[in-house]
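User: My instructor asked us to take a sequence, write out its structure as tokens, and then describe one feature of it. I'm not sure where to start. Here is the sequence I was given:
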Amino acid sequence: MKRILGLDYGSKTVGVAVSDPLGFTAQALEIIRRKSEKKLRQTLARIEQLVEEYDIGTIVLGLPLNMNSEQGDRAQKSLEFKELVEKRTGLDVVMWDERLTTVEAIEIMNEAGIKPQDRKLYVDKIAAGFILQDYLNYQELKKHE
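Assistant: Let's start with the prediction itself. The structure tokens for your sequence are:
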């Protein structure tokens, strides 16, 4: 069974998580950083490497909807990024509602005692883990309906 890659796309980072081989749990993996929002070549190359390395079959990308469920500027940028990732990897990218995942990630870091100034080292990959775990949980529920 192929693994699933979870991505949390931001203006200068992409948080990355990967599922276990059976598709039950998500593990935060890394944060891909770039100097500016438009410089995506190395980011896409790294995602392509991860797809190969982890034998990825599906990619789940967070969709940052507004709290009223409308798509704002960040959601539009995520949809544009989806197109680039699909072209680069040849895989389908599933968009997944990521509302409040950053809030959840900050709560986890607070509980773990991570200082506020150190949060940027972890928040994006933890949020990617939440996005992917939410997707995996949904897929598991669908199996039992």
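For the description part of your assignment, you could build on this observation: Strands lie at 3-9, 13-19, 26-33, 56-63, 93-97. Try explaining in your own words what that tells you about the chain.
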